[in-house]
Design brief:
The chain is of the alpha/beta class. The chain is 37% helix and 23% strand.
Length: 191
């Protein structure tokens, strides 16, 4: 069972997904704390409603000071729109979800709707999401899970976003369960 911190910047849709799956027993994790870098993030309100400790921390230093008070072994970046530097003890234990099939449409500037707009502009016929370990470079750490979706010629960036988010809801919990089963080092050692 993974003891998680969830870092977010927005509405908390991924937090909703985690909470639901923990409640139904399909996600082997416990959320210890939720931190947002945006003071009025809806995700903080949801976290408090679910009963999780929830804090605003604008940067890495403040975030890591909060994390030091909790017994965690995994940090989930759930729509956290900032490059995060964890404390050294957790440097290889940060999971991120990216709304494309890495190595396509990733790196600086490729986040959220920007990704789906780029996928549409390129005329891609598939897209998807990637759950990967994060390091000091955007979207570069070892991949844990990827899920693919088929696209239609007529799909808009919003349509693509909806399709990708649907598979993100499956991929992120699956990745956390795989990390729980295989351990963090398995993924860092395989690439």
């Amino acid at each position: 069972m993974r003891r998680m911190a969830v870092l977010l910047s927005g509405s908390g849709r991924t937090l909703d997904n985690f909470h639901q799956r923990i409640q139904e027993g399909s996600l082997r994790a416990e959320i210890q704390v939720v931190i947002a870098n945006v003071a009025d993030a809806l995700g903080l309100e949801k976290a408090r409603r679910y009963g999780y400790p929830a804090f605003h921390a604008p940067g890495n230093e403040e975030t890591n000071r909060i994390l030091a008070d909790y017994n965690i072994d995994l940090i989930a970046l759930a729509g956290y729109l900032k490059l995060y530097t964890p404390p050294p003890a957790l440097a290889r234990s940060v999971l991120n979800i990216h709304p494309s099939l890495i190595p396509s449409f990733c790196g600086p500037g490729f986040y959220g709707h920007h990704v789906h707009e780029a996928v549409k502009a390129r005329g891609c016929m598939v897209s998807g999401c990637t759950v990967h370990f994060a390091n000091e470079v955007y979207d570069e750490g070892p991949i844990v899970v990827q899920k693919c979706v088929s696209l239609e010629y007529t799909d808009t960036p919003d349509d693509i976003a909806d399709k990708v988010f649907a598979v993100e809801c499956e991929a992120f919990p699956e990745a956390i369960n795989r990390v729980d089963e295989l351990g963090v080092d398995f993924f860092w050692n395989r690439v």
